Amino acid sequence: MFPFLEPYMPVISLIVLAIVVAIGFIKKVNLGFLSLGVAFALAIFSGQTSSQAAKLVAGGFSSSMFVTLVGVTFLFGMASQNGTLDLFSKKIVALVGKNTVLIPILMFVLSAFISAIGPGHIAAGILMTTFAMYLAFEMKINPWVTALFAKLGANAGCASPLSLTGLLAKELSEPMGHTGFEAHLFLSTLLSGFVFTLIIYIGSKSYKVKADNPLKLSEIPKFNKHQLLTVAAIVIMVICCIGFKLDTGLFAFIMAAILILAGAADEKAAIKGIPWGTLIFICGVGSLVAVIDKLGGITMVSEFLQSFMNEHTAVPILAATSGILSWVSSTTGVVMPALFPVADQVATQFTSVNYVELISAITATSFAAAISPLSTGGAIIMSSYSASKETTNDEMNKLFRNLFLLSVANVLVNVLMAALGVFSLGGLF
Fold this sequence. Notes:
It is a single chain. By secondary structure, the protein is mainly α. The protein has one domain (3-60, 98-215, 275-427). Helix 4 runs antiparallel to helix 11 (225-243) and helix 10 runs parallel beside helix 18 (355-369). It has 20 helices and no strands.
């Protein structure tokens, strides 16, 4: 449309991305819908015809990823709606009995497990953070620290091959020719979350926790037939999708259909529970990033970073970049779609730098920042805390400050891990 602007389109496209992220951060609007409109306008502005622009935007909207995420979240929405996940959590905590010193670590492990089998960091984070907060008040132990363990676990487990982040990483990487990294990415993110959980566990002296466990196994009801069927459906899905490499999203629809026909869950409630906004967020921003990539913006970012990095500093620099971006944007919605292509170009430039190590550092560090109250994770902790007891402005301000400082510390820990080569996992994968 404006030929004289063509040399400047990479810069313009990046400025547009920054403006979109800023609008989302300030106005708290869904960036997915905004990104789709902006992507089309940006493509038109760059000189594409209407049909070319529409094709470019639609091509960036990953329909396969959308179907996969809908299938997985629909199935686990049923598991949440019929009480299966909540009852499972209570039974596990009840098994601890009087060994309440294990409660903080159990919150991490249980939350990571639930996140890893499919629900992802948002659904598992909401479920387990709320549960941990309730449990902590009942046990008269530090509620927000206990909830933090749960959220760290939800973030740590979310990069499994069955969960939202792992599925997104696969969808972003396969077009660039990278496959077979699922176990590496999952274990890297899990290790990152566990390291910081251990630091908080020691720093908060949670190993001294002594309290009465309000949950008694004998007092907790058994799984009913619908919940047992739901557990069986989840187990079958895990076996078939990991063991036999079946498509996760489509197989989840099969299991969901069986639960619906058996009357094991409320179909309408489960549909309402699908995080449509999150799915549009991820796919919408993906379309905008695809347009920016077409206009040369991603290449420009990559070349800028490469200008002051070398094979030894590439991993920690990208890790730090992802952590900073995550403070003002979404890991799955913005950070991963924007930085995975950069990681591919950096790995091509520095042949001794491994793409999988780069995306592991990016993902883990971005989620490390996500316990900030400016992100969903920290916001969940604050809202659960205020909903559980009467709070003052001073108390909430203190909690805000603590969570943000902890997110900064978590990012620094991950950047250090990246610099030490931890995310290579010793070349085991």
